[in-house]
TrEMBL record, chain B:
Superkingdom of this protein's organism: Bacteria
PANTHER family in the record: BSL7504 PROTEIN (PTHR37318:SF1)
Organism field: Leucobacter albus
Lineage per the UniProt record: Bacteria, Bacillati, Actinomycetota, Actinomycetes, Micrococcales
Domain HTH arsR-type span(s) in chain numbering: 10-101
CDD domains recorded: HTH_ARSR
Official protein name in the record: Transcriptional regulator
């Protein structure tokens, strides 16, 4: 049983993604929350700049870093956490875009981007910890 | 390839029971697959020692291996098979029952 307890602790530690992972993902999603600001740009730039920015953020964050991919097996309740997380991010982004289009509040996309970044950075870490503990607990 | 192995009367699986193999199964259980090198680092054993333990698990049908090229390097990925996952969980249940104080 001591061996299993040791393996469980090892799993909890190794199955959590590196610290850089969630802030990077948060930055990437924040770019999409800022999309309403690009509406006045030429069409080509609207389609090119945001994906290029996302790719640049990913490339800088992953430069000479070990893989952040974890092949964790997600069970039922773990998947629910992911769906809830994605839904919250989608609602926040969609609401911001709709309200900006309706009322033209210039500050709204920036606030939504900051909120999305905070949600992904802190919520993502918490979700990761939950996943790692939940998956590792299957040993007992 | 043999499929599984005869369990002991107390429910313990003789293939999984040795500590190195128990640790391998415990590390593979929460993931869909793990890279051979990562597993070796986690277990802090040599390539040959890990290969030997994996061979026993593969022989019992508990572990599957595949080779894939990533970043230009050929790597071996290891995963618990469905039979391996069932056997491991059964072994853990038996261990837990043995460790529990008798009423």
């Amino acid at each position: 049983m001591a061996t299993l307890a040791e393996a469980e602790q090892q799993n909890i530690a190794r199955l959590q993604r590196p610290a850089r992972y969630w802030p990077t993902l948060g930055l990437m999603l924040a770019v999409f929350a800022l999309l309403p600001y690009t509406r006045s740009w030429p069409m080509l730039l609207q389609y090119l700049i945001p994906p290029a920015t996302v790719i640049a953020i990913g490339a800088v964050a992953a430069w000479k870093q070990p893989s952040a991919v974890r092949k964790l097996r997600l069970s039922g309740s773990m998947t629910l956490g992911l769906i809830g997380f994605a839904a919250a991010a989608g609602v926040l982004g969609g609401l911001s875009t709709a309200l900006y289009a309706e009322h033209g509040w210039w500050w709204l996309p920036a606030v939504a981007a900051a909120a999305l970044f905070a949600l992904v950075t802190f919520g993502g870490r918490a979700l990761d910890r939950f996943w790692a503990r939940r998956a590792s607990r299957g040993l007992r | 390839m043999a499929s599984g192995s005869a369990a002991h009367p107390n429910g313990l699986d003789p293939v999984i029971h040795p500590l190195p193999r128990l640790r391998i199964c415990a590390l593979l259980e929460p993931v869909s697959e793990e890279e051979f090198g990562a597993l070796r680092e986690l277990l802090q054993v040599s390539d040959s020692a890990l290969s030997k333990q994996l061979a026993a698990l593969v022989e019992a049908g508990y572990v599957e291996q595949r080779r894939a090229v990533r970043s230009g390097r050929s790597r071996v990925w290891v995963r618990l098979s469905d039979a391996g996952r069932r056997a491991f969980r059964g072994h853990i249940a038996a261990l837990t029952a043995l460790a529990a104080p008798a009423d």
